[in-house]
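Below sits the subject:
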Amino acid sequence: MRHNVITKTFSRDTEHRRSMMRNLAASLVEHEAIVTTVAKAKYLRPYIEKIVTRALKGDLSAVRQSIIDLGSDSAARKLVKELAPKFATRPGGYTRIIKLASRDGDKAPLARIEFMKEVQKAKEEKSSKETKISKAAKVVKSTKPENKKKIVSKTEVQVKAQVEETK
């Protein structure tokens, strides 16, 4: 039984598991999307997101730490110079996992893990629509009291006119 065991072992020892994560992370940075099993993709996600967050600083220390984490000089430099600046305004969630069909040989569930691209644009469009809606709501709110005042003032004038006519 696996009581109180936090890490997944993938039936590998620690050195092999670390090496596997480095290779998966380096491949993800180089190709910006990879297909792997769902379990490995879920295990890779927090690993790569921590590396990207550290790479957002963009200094020499970030480059050196990325080289250590990725095991590849070219992948680390690509991460710091090309990918990390794209996520400068994003507060996390740099990757997404898309589940795919099972693998033919062993029926292992596959997933595609990739860096976020189009979703950020969709969120920006959605936020711009929300601001337009909120501006329209402010205009409606500002015109409603004026309309009520005008209606009230018309009714008051009409009531005064009727009162004067009856006198």
Notes: Residues 148-152 have pLDDT under 50 and may be disordered. The first strand starts at residue 33 and ends at 37. Residues 72 and 84 are 16 Å apart (CA to CA). Helices lie at 14-31, 38-55, 60-70, 73-86, 118-166.
